[in-house]
Amino acid sequence: MEALWDPGSQALLDELGVGQGWRCLEVGAGGGSLVQWLADRGAHVTAVDIDTRFIEQFASDAITVRRVDIRTDELPQSEFDLVHARLVLEHLSQRRQILDRLAATLRPGGWIMIEDYEWSCFGFEGQDRAIDTVTEAVNAFMARAGFDRDYGRRLVSDLDDAGFCDVRGEGRARVVGPHDPGFDFFRLSFESLRNTLVESGELSREDADAAASRMAGGVRVFTPLMVAGIGRRA
């Protein structure tokens, strides 16, 4: 996922002028690629996640690693020049309240950049009932866990509502095949849920097997739209 989306995220952060001396909060730091990139540009990065096992190795004078639940844990106040989160808020039902909490961590004039999916353009190459059925079953499963597949569509207006100024947004999407960065995310996400969906009766074994065969056979994925919402604290 980092290989798929990092170049676009980095280009937007470059436009904001991130660099030497910036203090940055990376929320949901994941595997740490953007943490490293920000630090390499001379920023000090506070990397937070509820699971820090993939980023603890990066702790240094330039990178502070903290295990944090942004829904409930105390956050620094008026400290950062940048807050960035990618594919985090769409999973959290309190997302609008969390935006207020993140806004409070920014110093006046600091920037926030939130990136989340909007799924209306997602699909697989060609016409395939089994894959369409799998997509619907996976989305329904995630929705029950609090996932909002259309949050990207509301992200920019939420930044407005949270009181940010200079608010703007943009979207980007990719078409990826089995050998392209990011394809394995979609394949492995399905494989991780496959047995659960079949055992619960939400997906037939035949449809699951057919979809797995199509993914292994070279079908391309039209990714969701990655929407970036950007705003500045007044």
From TrEMBL:
GO biological process: methylation
Statement: the UniProt record of this protein carries the keyword Transferase: yes
SUPFAM superfamilies in the record: S-adenosyl-L-methionine-dependent methyltransferases
GO molecular function, one term: S-adenosylmethionine-dependent methyltransferase activity
InterPro entries from the UniProt entry: Methyltransf_11, SAM-dependent_MTases_sf
Key word Electron transport present: no
UniProt cross-references to Gene3D superfamilies, sorted A to Z: Vaccinia Virus protein VP39 (3.40.50.150)
Highest rank taxon of the organism: Bacteria
Keywords (A to Z) from UniProt: Methyltransferase, Transferase
Span of domain Methyltransferase type: 25-114
Protein name, per record: SAM-dependent methyltransferase
Organism: Mycolicibacterium agri (Mycobacterium agri)
Lineage: Bacteria, Bacillati, Actinomycetota, Actinomycetes, Mycobacteriales
